[in-house]
Specification:
Number of domains: 2
Bound molecules: magnesium ion
CATH class of the largest domain: Alpha Beta
Distance between the termini: 64 Å
Radius of gyration: 25 Å
Structural class: alpha/beta
Number of helices: 13
CATH architecture of the largest domain: 3-Layer(aba) Sandwich
Keywords: Hydrolase
Organism: Durusdinium trenchii
Largest sheet: 7 strands, parallel
CATH topology of the largest domain: Rossmann fold
Strand content: 15-25%
InterPro entries: HAD-like_sf, HAD-SF_hydro_IIA, HAD_sf, PGP_euk
Protein name: 4-nitrophenylphosphatase
CATH superfamily of the largest domain: HAD superfamily/HAD-like
Low-confidence stretches: 23-35
Shape: elongated
Strand order of the largest sheet: 1-16-15-14-2-5-6
Mean pLDDT: 91
Order of helices and strands: HEHEEEHEHEHEHEHEHEEEHEHEHEHEH
Length: 339
Amino acid sequence: MARVKQLLVVLSCLALNSRFRELVDHNRSLAFSGHWTKRRELDSRLAHKLIESAEAFVFDLDGVIWIGGFLVEGVQETLEDLRGHGKSVIFATNNAMRTRSEVASRLKSLGLDWVMESDVFNSANAVARLLEARGISKDRSIYIVGEAGLRDEVQALGYRTQGGPDDAGKSLKDIPTALERIDPSSFGAVVCGLDQHLNYYKLALASSLVRNGVPLFASNDDLFGQLGPGKHQWPGAGSVLAAVAAAAGRRPPLADATAGKPSLEFAKLIEHSLDIPARKMVMVGDRLDTDIAFGNNAGMQTLLVLSGVTSRAELHRAQGNWVPDYVAASVASLGAAQQ
Ligand SMILES: [Mg+2]
């Protein structure tokens, strides 16, 4: 009888040991896939820790700060609290259609009256700075395929521009004369951004310049954006870039330089301007392929808010640098930590 008991004890131990190993392996695979170490729900304890650990919060705009022309509920109080705790609060957007000054004015008009132009980082200014950083001479013109905001930010750094809104009304019949007059050697770059007034004329001129050796720059390379509660997809700056590059006969990589999220150049611009290292920043965004990839690439902590375009199902399917450290319903969850 004693032997049977002993045998039972040994068998139980073996069973427990095997179950224990299974659990260890399961947990290890969860940790490896980022289920535990990342994608953590931002409760008030984690939010408090996150705020303590950071010096700056970088907020995307659409779907995070505002939706359809209104501030997301709780944004005003949360941002003011963060600032009250000595945190830098800035905004980083891939939208190159407006200047930083116009974005700052819009934020002010929505009630964030402390926002200054220097608190806004956009891909229009970022690509203009990239022209400088890559040594594009200011003696040469920049051909713009984009909106007034892109043109104005490029001009603000001392470049002369052609194209952009000036070529909005042109068409096929204007192309032959333009191509005869144009001298590619007088152009320093073609810069592409989202262009609601993209037309055949701009496509012909920009692609002709690129085919003749003019470098191709892009404000950002998002192929599409998402709009409205139905999350309709619409072509982004990356689609404009792809059209110009295709017409110029280019194969990937399409652009010689790309600014905006998720590029590291954009992160460096923000680090340099704030004089704060990326590891002391938190990127707060609603899009995995731009905001979260951007923050992760740069070494920031990342917080996905579900107030914008990303669903829980999409978050669950995310892999690699698309996986955020933290998840919250909205920016208001950061404010809840400070109650
Ligand atoms: Mg967004």
